Amino acid sequence: MVYAAIDEVDAQSADGALVEKAPDSPLLGSARGVDSLTFVNLVVAIEEQIQKTLNKCVVLVDEDSMILQEHPFRTIGTFADYIERVIAKHQSN
Predict the structure, then answer these.
(1) Beta-carbon count within 10 A of 63 CB
(2) Is the pLDDT of residue 92 over 90?
(3) Boundaries of domain holding 22
(4) Residues 25-40: what's their mean pLDDT?
(5) Which of 24, 49, 87, 90 could form an S-S bond across to 1 if both were Cys, CB 3.0 to 4.6 Å?
């Protein structure tokens, strides 16, 4: 779902700045990371993928995610791990 969302965001990129589909690709907190608009578009695209694929409505960026000691938005891999935790939490509810 994450890579499908990256494909969507990359297809919409007006400036040609693409998100690399690799676990260690930087997102936020790095000079090589993505800009804020690309990050927001990626989050929305992933939430839509989760809705389409799993029929679950989740919010990936909220107060809880922003106060985590190690924020989950450093790389594609850390974000994917966080997404798995969020989905598992919603499935147990």
Answers:
(1) 6
(2) no
(3) 2-92
(4) 87
(5) 49
